Amino acid sequence: MKLEEVHQDHICRTIEVAVVEPTKVSPAVKLPPTADDSETNGEELYIPPLNFAMVDNGIFRSGFPDCANFPFLQTLGLRSIIYLCPEPYPDTNMEFLKSNGIELFQFGIEPCKEPFVNIPEGTIRKALKVVLDVKNHPLLIHCKRGKHRTGCLVGCLRKLQRWCLTSVFDEYQCFAAAKARVSDQRFMELFDVSSFRHLPLSFSCSKRIGARFLRPSSSCQQRLYKEGS
Amino acid sequence: MKLEEVHQDHICRTIEVAVVEPTKVSPAVKLPPTADDSETNGEELYIPPLNFAMVDNGIFRSGFPDCANFPFLQTLGLRSIIYLCPEPYPDTNMEFLKSNGIELFQFGIEPCKEPFVNIPEGTIRKALKVVLDVKNHPLLIHCKRGKHRTGCLVGCLRKLQRWCLTSVFDEYQCFAAAKARVSDQRFMELFDVSSFRHLPLSFSCSKRIGARFLRPSSSCQQRLYKEGS
Fold this sequence. Notes:
2 copies of one chain form a homodimer. Chain A is α/β, with parallel strands linked by helices and 229 residues long.
C-alpha cells in the first residue's frame, strides 16, 4: 500500500492509497448477487452489520462491520464511512474501502465506562459536519457496537432535526437497550446545535421526500382489507 | 363528512371523503414551522410517534400517531399510511389524513397474546404488496405500539430484501425489546417471499442510492481527526 501524506494541519490527515483493480479484490468483497441470480431462493443472503439501521436519506448507522457484511454494504453504494473509535481500521476493511472507493473519516473517541465518561464535544461537532455534508452521502456511521458513540452522534443530528428529547432518547435506547447510559443522554441534552442552524438540511427525509412528493390537500381514500377476502 | 362507496369486491373498500380546505384544518394539524421560523431555538420541536424509524427510502414505521405527532408526520410528506389494527381510525387522525391528502390502507389484524397467536399470512401478503408499490410512497406502517404487527410486516419486507434471519430478528427485537415474541419470529422465518421475487425493488436504499451514487473503484482517502486539534 502506498501511503502519501497529502495534508496535515493538526485537524485531519488524508491518506491517498493505491488503486485496486476490481479483479484484484479479495473474495470477501465480491460484488453482491443481483436479483437475476439463480441463488435468490435463500442461498445468497445479505448480512447487515450488528445494529444496522437507516437514519435518514443517505445516512446509515451500525456496529463494526466485518467481511461477512461487505456484500450487504456494497448494496448501499457508500461514498464514506465515519468511524468513531481510536483503534486503526483493520486491513481487511481498508481493502474493502479501497476497492469500493469509500472515504474513511476516523474520529477516535475513546470508549468510556460510567462514571468516567467524557464524550468529546469538539469531536462530535466535527463528525456532525461530515454527516451534514451531502457530498459524503451515502454515509455509514459506526463505532464498535453501534450503541454509545454512534448513538450520541445520531442523537445530536436528531436535535438538529428538531426532534424532542424524549424521541431522541427513545431512539438511543432502542439501540443501546440494557447498555443505555444516563451520561450519554445528558451529553445529547446539553449539546448545543445552534451553531449548525445555518446549514441546509437538504439531506433530511423531512425535506427531500416532502418536497418531492407532497400533494395538495384534496381528498383522502381509505381502503379496508380483511383476512379471507 | 360525505362517504361514497366507490369500489367493493370483497377485497377492499374505498371511501372518498370530502375536500377539506387548509383554512378549516384544526390547530392540531397546522403546518410545521420551517427552518426560517423564529422559533428554531428549541421552542418548536417535532414529536415523532413512539418507535418511529426509517425502514428504507420512502418507508417509515412507528406506533400509533396522535395529534402531537402530526406536525412531524407532515415533514415526511406522506402519501399513504398502512394501519394494521382492526379498530376504526380515530376522527382526529382521519381529519389529518384528509387535510394532507394521505391515503389510508387498513389491514385489521387482531392483537394476539401468546400462546394464542395467529398472524394472518394473507393479510400480511396484501399489506406487503401495498408497501412494495412505490406509487404509495412515502408511506408509514403502524399498528398500536410499532412492535409486533408492524415488526412482522417489516420483517417480511427484509426477507424479500434478502436479509439473513439473524438480522431480521435483530431489527424486530430492537423495537419489540422485552415484548419480543417467538411466535412472531417463527412467522417471519416461515413466510415464503418467493411469490414476490418478480416485483421490482426499486424503492430499496440498496438499489436506488447504489445506482445513483456508486463511484468506480479508484482511490480511497482516510482522514483522521483527534480531539483538541
